[in-house]
Amino acid sequence: MTPESFAFLSGLVKARSGIVLTADKGYMLETRLGPMLRREGLAGLDVLALRLRSAREERLAAEVVEALTTNESSFFRDGKPFDHLRRLLPKLAAARAPGQALRVWSAACSSGQEAYSVAMVVTELGAALGGRRVEILGTDLSREMLDRARDGAFTQFEVQRGLPVQMLVKYFRQDGARWCVKPELRAMARWQPFNLLEDARGLGRFDVIFCRNVLIYFDAPTKSRVLGMLAGMVAPDGVVYLGGAETVLGLTERLAPAAGERGVYEQARQAARAG
Question: Are 118 and 85 in contact (CB under 8 A)?
Answer without folding.
Answer: yes
